[in-house]
Design a protein that fits this description.
Layout: H1 3-11, E1 15-30, E2 33-46, E3 49-53, E4 55-64, E5 67-77
Antiparallel strand pairs: 1-2, 2-3, 2-4, 4-5
Length: 79
Amino acid sequence: MSKAKVIASFDSGERHWDEAHSNEFRVRVYGETAVVIGRWQAHGISTGQAFEYSPRYLSVWIWRKGRWQMTVDQSTDIT
């Protein structure tokens, strides 16, 4: 699903999350770069159907202008 379609589904009310949180993660810092590997869980409604989602994720952050900024984030379903 494209980014535009995902945003439109939230704007229309077709999709919403009741809860989302990260419950497992490891952070490794390499100078001004941090790599976060973890798992997050969410549940809510999408196109009228309840859903639960629990993927693993990888995020890459860089220290820029006095703050951490996410540069890449990718989630993969846990099968």
